[in-house]
Inverse folding.
């Protein structure tokens, strides 16, 4: 009897917790359809005009394009080097393994502000590199590659090493073993990693803001719009589109990633 | 394993330097591992280690208007710690003893705010992780995905949502006014340290659940049964078995939230106002408007050092407590 009661209490807590996590975010789409320039209750009427306004905004479209380009390049580069590193760590024993994993995970625990100013320092005070979308992309690779590695490590640990050894024993070269055995088996993890790196880069503001040249990415554009109250509804519409897109992408990639390796203690 | 690969390539290895190098490569797991790791290590070296060294060296230089004086000096560090010439009352305000108290004062304030947020996040996350590990049997994948999704979706927009909620003409104020609870908007909601702490706690909530969940999930269920069989009540069992065994995950969660939140820049900028600024804001302004990058570098180095020391002290304290308990138990 008492355990039944406790179960319900915990479930109630879980539901309230999920509401706390999701409710603030869901306000953005709600107000993006509100026919008023003020984000206040009670809601006025239903409108699509903020979305129409958004589609006719060249500055917004340019930064959207920049974000997609940077995100795509970052996703491919981070996943590639992440896959190589994950293979090395899950397949081989080598001296300094723990230290290497710790070193690669460093960007996950250093506050981004310090990474951003350190990169800005190296680019401007030492090397005189012009800031551009390339500098943003480079910093995003540094921030995303550890995620890619960790996602792919849990995927590579999830399947039988003997398959690779069998392929080598049967006369395949290391290269064709990789393409015919390792890569297809790791594919769900690779896709998940590509999508997660893309959204991380697409949403990242701080590194991008410090390392941006003339062209801005979408988060920088949004941040600049937040100062003007008159532009808030347009920003809400844009934010809602981004939220829905990243929600779909992330849900799909999480489903891909956790499907095969469920219950094996997938971190992060 | 290595020899299997070698055997496959045996016909090719007849003679020559290239072939013997190739054999060495195949024989040594370490060389193969490090060559696979090399692109990643190269990225970390050029994008993390070199910039940090650069920042460290910069902190010993001086900015003179638009030029950098590259002669070595401790001036920036002295500026942060120098004592004031004026009379001060240490007991009323210890920071009044410093000539430029703002840097250390803000650092302390940032640490306090982020500690509050971290404690709130971990305390709120623990029951949720417990629920996931012990109560959810069906649809676990759905729950896990629901929890991880906010972790990856736009940080900026989640903060923006709080600005909308807490604002002067925001959701809470307009909602309360239309309900007739208040007549004037509440001004204390936005642009203060409390707003920053609430937003920090919400933005990082998802980060704490997963490490705790993983360590709870790993607990051997027969240990729990043994505790019950030997007469522990559920509460005793939780404090004597479950909680100690989940400490590694809880510790990881605490550090994963505490370390990045101290340096957060976006949240205090958007919802903190002037009273809610944190150390990240002052560093940004030193590199930007204030045009004193070397001092900014010195403030960053001190901040990173203090954060690392706190993290190490925390790990050491928890580790110390655990070994002492074990000794007492033996």
């Amino acid at each position: 009897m008492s355990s039944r009661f406790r179960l319900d209490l915990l479930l109630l807590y879980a539901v309230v917790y999920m509401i706390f996590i999701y409710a603030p975010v869901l306000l953005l789409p709600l107000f993006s359809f509100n026919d008023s320039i003020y984000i206040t209750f009670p809601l006025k009427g239903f409108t699509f005009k903020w979305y129409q306004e958004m589609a006719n905004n060249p500055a917004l479209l340019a930064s959207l394009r920049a974000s997609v380009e940077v995100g795509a390049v970052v996703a491919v580069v981070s996943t590639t080097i992440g896959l190589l590193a994950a293979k090395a760590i899950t397949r081989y024993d080598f001296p300094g393994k723990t230290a290497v994993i710790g070193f690669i995970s460093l960007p996950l625990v250093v506050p981004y502000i310090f990474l951003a100013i350190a990169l800005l320092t190296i680019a401007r005070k030492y090397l005189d590199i012009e800031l551009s979308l390339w500098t943003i992309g480079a910093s995003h690779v540094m921030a995303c590659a550890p995620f890619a590695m960790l996602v792919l490590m849990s995927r590579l640990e999830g399947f039988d090493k003997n398959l690779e050894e069998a392929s080598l024993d049967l006369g395949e070269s290391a290269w064709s073993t990789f393409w015919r055995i390792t890569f297809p088996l790791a594919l769900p993890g690779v896709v998940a990693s590509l999508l997660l790196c893309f959204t991380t880069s697409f949403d990242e503001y701080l590194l991008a803001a410090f390392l941006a040249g003339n062209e801005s990415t979408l988060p920088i554009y949004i941040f600049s719009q937040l100062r003007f109250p008159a532009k808030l509804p347009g920003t809400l519409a844009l934010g809602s589109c981004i939220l829905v897109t990243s929600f779909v992408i992330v849900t799909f990639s999480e489903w891909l990633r956790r499907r095969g390796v469920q219950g094996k203690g997938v971190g992060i | 394993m290595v020899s299997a690969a070698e055997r496959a390539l045996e016909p090719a290895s007849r003679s020559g330097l290239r072939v013997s190098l190739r054999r060495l490569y195949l024989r040594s797991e370490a060389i193969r591992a490090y060559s696979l790791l090399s692109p990643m290590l190269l990225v970390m070296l050029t994008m993390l280690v070199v910039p940090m060294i650069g920042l460290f060296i910069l902190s010993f230089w001086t900015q003179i208007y638009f030029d950098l004086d590259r002669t070595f000096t401790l001036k920036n560090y002295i500026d942060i710690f120098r004592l004031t010439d004026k009379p001060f009352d240490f007991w009323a305000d210890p920071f009044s003893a410093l000539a430029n108290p703002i840097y250390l004062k803000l650092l302390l304030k940032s640490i306090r705010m982020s500690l509050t947020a971290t404690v709130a996040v971990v305390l709120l996350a623990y029951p949720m992780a417990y629920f996931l590990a012990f109560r959810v049997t069906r649809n676990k994948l759905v729950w896990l995905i629901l929890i991880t999704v906010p972790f990856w979706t736009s940080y900026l927009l989640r903060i923006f949502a709080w600005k909308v909620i807490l604002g002067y003409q925001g959701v809470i104020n307009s909602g309360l006014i239309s309900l007739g609870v208040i007549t004037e908007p509440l001004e204390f909601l936005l642009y203060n340290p409390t707003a920053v702490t609430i937003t920090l706690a919400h933005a990082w909530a998802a980060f704490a659940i997963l490490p705790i969940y993983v360590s709870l999930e790993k607990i051997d269920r027969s240990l729990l049964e043994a505790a019950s069989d030997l007469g522990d009540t559920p509460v005793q069992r939780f404090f004597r078995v479950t909680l100690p065994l989940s400490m590694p995950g809880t510790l990881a969660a605490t550090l994963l939230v505490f370390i990045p939140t101290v340096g957060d820049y976006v949240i205090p900028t958007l919802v903190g106002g002037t009273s809610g600024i944190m150390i990240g804001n002052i560093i940004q302004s030193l590199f930007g408007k204030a045009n004193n990058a070397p001092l900014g570098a010195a403030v960053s180095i001190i901040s990173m050092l203090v954060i690392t020391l706190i993290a190490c002290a925390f790990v050491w304290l928890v580790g110390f407590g655990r070994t002492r308990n074990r000794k007492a138990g033996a």
Observations:
- Confidence is low (pLDDT under 50) at residues 262-268 of chain A.
